Amino acid sequence: MKKYVAFCVDTVRFALLIMVIAAEFLCSQPSDAAEIGLSMQDVFFTTPDSMNIAGSWIIPEAAAAKKTTKVPVVLLLHDYGLNRRDWSIFIPDLVQHGYGVLAIDLRGHGQSRREEATAPPTPEDVLKNGVGDLQAALNWLKSQKQADIKHVALIGAGIGGDLAFLGRSTFPKSVKVAVVISPSYSTVTEGAPLGNQTDAVLFCVSSKSKDGLSMMAAETLANFTKDPKKTIVYNSAAYGLAMFYKHPEIKQEILEWIAILKTKK
Fold this sequence. Notes:
Layout: H1 2-27, E1 38-46, E2 52-60, H2 61-65, E3 71-77, H3 91-96, E4 100-104, H4 123-142, E5 147-157, H5 159-170, E6 175-181, H6 186-191, E7 198-206, H7 213-223, E8 225-234, H8 243-246, H9 250-258
Helix pairs in contact: 4-5
């Protein structure tokens, strides 16, 4: 019963946070900006290795009303130690631009953590097994009539960025474009299939984050990425989702990049 109550409180808090951020976003726009309508539901699915993954499925309210309308999808992947709620800073922008959003809790995080777990998985474990989380998410999206499963973008920060890079090369038929924010060097040394080049990746990184290791990782991964690709370097030490607060212009850069979903076959 306590777990159920905690789940309900967490869900209500997230919904309220989305509404507040959407309201703030609207207030910052010109007066003729269209009102943002959000339709949100919490969802659960299982990975190939029997991990239960929690997520939030958010689509434009107008699309929800027309059940035959398919929308391109953005799959959001948070950093290590965070959860899907932290993406509330960017979700309203994505929905306003017509995307369906699936934000998930990576294994061992948020509501994707097993009750019997005494400690979260290591970053190495998340990177090693996280592709299974992506596979489960993509399989779940296939069951959604309004999700255009052939036009999916992966956006990740930190270890989520590492997984976004891996996901673009692992699931190229569904994942058409990726955004990698503040990648770790673990992607290069442990996870990245550098022999299997991919493309359509935007790298966003700060020059001083992680003592320059994050920028080094982004540059290395970019060298193994075919065109189209782009690397944006910000002059600060901001890392991961903190970049949305330090460099708010990152939102527009990402939106322009993933717009390829609406034109790519």
